[in-house]
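User: Hey, my collaborator sent me this sequence without any context and asked if I could get a structure. I don't really work with proteins. Can you help?
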Amino acid sequence: MTAVTQSLPAEAASVAPRWGGLGRVRSIGWGMVDQALSSVTNFALGVLVARSVSVREFAGFSLAYVAYVLCNGLVSALVSEPLIVRVGTLDDDDRASKIKAAHGTAFVLSLAIAVVVGGAGLALPTPVGPALRILAVFLPGLLLQDVMRMTFFATGSPAKATANDGVWAFWQAALIVPMVAMGTTSVTRLIGAWGAAAGLAALFGLWQVRHLPSPNGTRSWLTGQRDLAVPFLGEFGLTTGAFQSTFYLLGLVGGLDLVAGLRGALMAANPLNILFLVVPPLAIPAAVRLR
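Assistant: No problem. I've predicted the 3D structure and written it out in structure-token form, which is a compact way to encode the shape of the chain:
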């Protein structure tokens, strides 16, 4: 969640990726801190839900979280990953306009995806349906916040990404701790607090970049990035997408208890993913610059 503080050509130079010498070391360090912060907060949310609700309700939360991962992967493949590759090859004017178009595309996609998720939530029974419905309400903020975060990595400002994730963590604590203290936690309330905090972080990200998303550039962005977006989307579908989708298949075949058990076991390995998750957003822009 770092900032692309450039919306005008004169300001755009300051968003140029910075990857030389000490700057590269600092970028890697901030990237590790940011990913650790993101992983720890998500892990803490999962643990809190697991300790606060029944097994079936935890399964409902798990399937809602899987839906978020799938939606986020879709937006990342269409927006964030192409932006990471492209931004280092653009001049200042093009960089600023492309970033605005990318954010606008993410916003439009997030609204469309939220409608689909909300519709699925209406069709599915408790506990999955209510979890998906509340997720749909806050999904645009969740997805846009992650795009902002990846933008900051792409422009060589991981410290700003960390600041943005810090805002998300702060508001999660501010909204969730009172619930825990009063004993009023539930799956929908916890998802709502998590999503509302992400929405506030997304607004903070827009303040950081000093511009609003540009939905008018959605069509041109999608057509212009097709050569990258299609392979990225295929890769996601064959790897993370396929794996995460199996949670729904397991729910149909083995029941919600099996989903809850598997999700709980995987949560324990979540902190080990920090290095794996932090390398691509930092390495790809550097490789593009070197090329």
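In plain terms: The chain has eleven helices and no strands. You can pass these tokens on to your collaborator as they are.
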